[in-house]
Amino acid sequence: MSAELSGFRRFIHWGPITALSIIKCITLTTLYMNSMWWPPNESFAAFAHQALFLLLSTLATFNYVMATLTGPGLLPKQWQPKDPKDTRFLQYCKKCEGYKAPRSHHCRKCDRCVKKMDHHCPWINHCVGWANHAYFTFFLLFSILGSMHGTVVLCCSFWRGIYRYYYLTHGLAHLASVQFTLTSIIMCILGMGLAIGVVIGLSMLLYIQMKTIVTNQTGIEIWIVEKAIYRRYRNPDSDDEFLYPYNLGWRDNLRLVFNDECQKRGDGIEWPVVEGCDQYTLTREQLAQKEEKRARTRTYKCIRPVTGRWLPLFSQGWRVCVGAPCSDEPRIRLLPDDIVRVTRFRSHWLFGERVPSEQEQHGEKKHQRKGHIRGWFPRQAAVELIEPDQDTSADGSHDEYPSAQNINGNHSHLKQQQRNGHAKKYM
After folding, report:
1. How far apart are CA 376 and CA 331, in angstroms?
2. Residue 301: how many CB atoms within 10 A of its CB?
């Protein structure tokens, strides 16, 4: 989906349609049942009770709409730091043809680099980041409070409705105010289920969001910090210490998000950091992690077609489907003899990036292949290539990104080894 998608067109998507439908279903069902259980014209307390529920529902809807329309804040295409020398501390984004600012990451759904990206939320059909983090958190809070209120109303109404006959036969007619029809009882049960589900699901998400806000981290940065700690655990003799630069203390961290401007302070590119750190402390750690990732990259060659489907039951078998990774990351389509640089490994799946052919690299349209170039594929569809020592150049360095044709040439003896039983397959 294009990042330039703007305005109310963002709501024409299954995520916003589903989210708004759930909110309105709970709201309308609660108002209908409350009109029988505790009518607002009965007393001032009843009026205030319904007004409170409407206020919570309105605030939840308002913050939802603002989170969607405001967006996270997109980094301009072809962005570069003011000082060209600082580019050595930053990662380059091929899609946006520019550098990634500190705390910015590329979202493959929005197809743009996002400022202080936390995650892509399908329910708002947008990312959660620098500009809309406060709106998104308020949406979660008011949705939970409104759904809790609705749950109480619906449960009390359901109780009154199913005991209506008892109240009428025991002289308690004033309590027999809720009268069910087939439609209303289905609506009440459905509304209760949705309201309880919203409370449970969004409470967990709100806890995660508040945990990241209090420490001034994003979901992505939590993973980066964990890898930074693990890197130093593996190398205890290293003098390279790492200090997370953005944790200013919980009060200042909260003020960065919850303020009068709702996250509009600053430009989303430069951030206040703790003493001893600078703007590129985290980006340097990311570059070091990328370098280690390249070092452990392995080269695989596809030996059978891969459809790129999420559950390739008929082409790969049930074991592969059962062992599929629990991730929304894409699956890639491969053809025999395709070369893939693999960086993550599972029992039945591998994650890597397909090496484009020379024709694709030269931009020839007729040779361009559709679909993702980076993602998961079944492990049994490829074999690992052990690159021989001849790949080392005269100056002792290695060709880090050889073309697919070069790899195929270097390993032209692979099929002969397979016939002789010497090639090792990683099934």
Report:
1. 5
2. 21
Query: Measured between alpha carbons, how far is residue 181 from residues 37, 154, 188, 397 in Å?
Result: 15, 15, 10, 79
Q: Which residues lie below 8 Å from residue 297, measured CB to CB, with a gap of 6+?
A: 341, 342, 343, 352
Using DSSP bridges, classify how beta strands 382-385 and 112-114 pair: parallel, antiparallel or unpaired. Answer: unpaired
> What's CA 190's distance to the chain center, in Å?
29
Parallel, antiparallel, or unpaired for β 112-114 and 105-107? antiparallel
Per-residue pLDDT of 376-416, as tens digits, reads 999 999 999 976 544 443 343 344 444 444 444 444 444 44
Residue pointed to by tokens 């409407």: 54
State how far the alpha carbon of 163 is from the alpha carbons of 35, 92, 241, in Å: 18, 66, 67
Sign of CA dihedral 153, 154, 159, 161: positive
3-state secondary structure of 229: helix
Active site residues: 121
* Inter-residue contact 402 to 297 (CB < 8 Å): no
Residue appearing with tokens 């059978």: 304
- Length in residues, the chain: 427
Angle, helices 250-257 vs 133-162, to 10°: value is: 90
Question: Rounded to an integer, what distance in angstroms lies between the CA atom of residue 1 and that of residue 398?
Answer: 38
Radius of gyration, CA atoms only, the chain? 28
DSSP character string of 270-288: S----TT--TTHHHHHHHH
Compute CA distances 152 → 47, 62, 155, 184, whole Å: 16, 23, 5, 17
- Predicted TM-score of the model (pTM): 0.80
Q: How far apart (Å, rounded) are the C-alpha atoms in residues 309 and 9?
A: 29
Ordered DSSP codes for 8-62 = GGGGSSHHHHHHHHHHHHHHHHHHHHHHHHS-TTS-HHHHHHHHHHHHHHHHHHH
Q: What is the amino acid identity at position 325? A: P
First to last CA, the chain: 35
**How far is it, in rounded angstroms, from Cα 75 to Cα 96?**
9
As a whole number of angstroms, the distance between CA 336 and CA 303 comes to 5
**Cα 68 to Cα 46: distance, rounded to the nearest angstrom:** 34
Q: For residue range 225-263, what is the model confidence (pLDDT) as tens digits?
A: 999 998 888 888 777 788 999 999 999 999 999 876 545
Q: Which residue has the tokens 């994650």?
A: 351
Distance CA(161)–CA(142), nearest Å, equals 28
